[in-house]
TrEMBL record:
Residues 423-442, 477-506 are annotated as: Disordered. The chain crosses the membrane at residues 20-43, 55-74, 95-117, 129-147, 159-179, 185-206, 227-255, 261-285, 305-325, 337-358, 370-387, 393-415. The keyword Transmembrane applies. Its main location: membrane. It is found in: Cell membrane. This is Lipopolysaccharide biosynthesis protein. PANTHER family: O-ANTIGEN TRANSPORTER-RELATED, PST FAMILY PREDICTED COLANIC ACID TRANSPORTER. Residues 495-506 have a biased composition (Basic and acidic residues). Keywords: Cell membrane, Membrane, Transmembrane, Transmembrane helix.
Amino acid sequence: MASGHAGRHRQLRSGPDQVFVSSFFLLASTVVTAGLSFLFWVVVARYYSPEQVGLATSLISATTLLAFLSLAGLNSTLIRFPAPEPSRDAQITQSMLLVAVLACAAAGVYLLGLPLYGQKLLFIREDPAWIAAFVLFCACAAVNLLMKSVFIAARTPQFNVLSDGLLQGAAKLALPAALTGLGTAGILGSAGGGFVVAVVSMLLLMRAKLGFRLDFLGRGTRLREQLRFSVASHVSSVVNLAPVMALPLIVLHYLGAAQAGYYFIAFQIASLLNAVSAAVGEAIFAEVSADPSRFGEMMRRSAKIIAVVQVPAVTAVALGGGLLLKVFGGSYADSARDLLCVLALSALAVALNTWACFALKLLRRMKRLILSNLVLAAVSVGLAVLWTPRGLLWVGLAWGAGNLAAGCLASLSLLGSRPSPAAAAPAAPSGPTGHTGPVVPAPAGDGDWLARRLAEDDPTLQLGPWDLGPLRDVYHGAAAPRPREPWKPPTWAAHHYDERPKRRRR
C-alpha cells in the first residue's frame, strides 16, 4: 500500500514545465479565493445591517491575522526541508498540531485583551459557545494556511484551488442566509464554517492523493533541526506584512475615512498584480527545494515568467485602471485612478523584491532576508508618514520606493551568495554503508539529501545518522572522515542472566 501511494505521489509531480503549471494554479487559487470572497460580502450585505457587517469584518480580520502569526514559519519549513518519506507524515501532523495550539493560545490572548482595544466586540465573550467557536475558527484558519504548503511542496497546487478556493468559498456563500438570526456572530460563523470545510477537504485530499496518514509520534521530522530557519522565516514574513497593515492606518489618520476607502480598493486591485510574482516565487521555492542543483536554472526561468506575465498586466491596469474603478462608483474612478496607476507600476518593484527574497530564502541567507524586509518596512512607512499629507498619490509612491529599495538590496545580496560551481567530488571511502565511488556534492547540512542520493544509487542501503556522519566530512572538504566511535553496550546489558546460579528443584 505504501509503495502504491509513493508511486501515485511521484506521478502527480511529473509535468513538462512544473514551474509554469504550479504558478498558474497558485495564481488561480488566489483569484478564485478573492472572487468568491467578494461574492460572500455581497451576499452578507443583503442579509445583515451595516453595523453587523462592520463588527464582523473586525473579527474576521483578527482571525486571519492570528492565523498568520501562528504559522511560526512552519509553512516555509515544510516546503524547504521536507522530511524523508518514512517521517513525512509525522512532520506534517506535528506541524499542524503545533500551529493549531499556537492559534488557540493567540485567540485566547486576543479575547482576554478585548476590553483594551475592542469594547464593541465584547459580545463574543458573553456566550461560551461562541468563545469556543472563535478559538476553533482561528485554529482552522491557521491549519488551512499550513496545509496549503503541503500541496505546494508536493507540487500539486491544483488541490488548493479545489479546497481552499472552491469548496471554502461555496461553504461561505451557503451559510449567511441560514445564520441571519445570529446577527454579527452569523457572519463570523459563515466565514469560520468555510475554514472548517477547507481543512476537512484538505485532509481528505491529502489522504486520497498523497497517501497521508496522521502520525503524532513519529521521529525524524527535522522540525527541531530547522527551528532557526522557521523562526527567521516567520520574522521576515511578519516584517514584510508590517507596511501592508500600517499604510491604511496612516492614510486614515492624515486624510480621513473616505480617502482610506479609496486607498483600500486601489490596493486590492494592485494586490492581484502582486499575486503573480508571489505565485511564481512559491512554485520556484518548491521546485528548488526538491532539487537544489537547479537553483540557477529555476531562478532564470522564474524571472522570465514574471516578466512575460507581469509587464502586460501592469500596462493594462495602469492604462485602464479608471474603467476598473468605475465598477465601484464614479467617485473611486475620480479619486483613486492616479493612485492605482502608481500601485500598478510599483508591482514591478514588488516583483523584484519577491523574486530576490525567495532566492535568499532558498540559499538560507536569513539575516539578509530579514534585513531587506526591514528596509521595506522602514522606507515604506517612513516615507508614508512624510508624504501622505501631500495626497493619496504619495502613499503609492512610498509603497513603490520601499519595495524598490528592498528589492535592490536583496538582489545585491545575491551577488555574493551564488552557489560556487561544483568541484570534482572525492571518492567516498568504503565504510559501514558499503558505498564507494564518486559522490555528488550535497548542500551543507542536508544529510537527508545525502541519504536519498545514496539510496537512489543502491536501494538496498539502510542508512542511519551514524552512517552519514563520516560522509558529511567528505562533502564538506575534510581531509579524512571522522573515525567512528566504538559501540558500547548500555549498562543494563552488562549483566547476563545466564550467569545467575540456577536453583535446583527439590
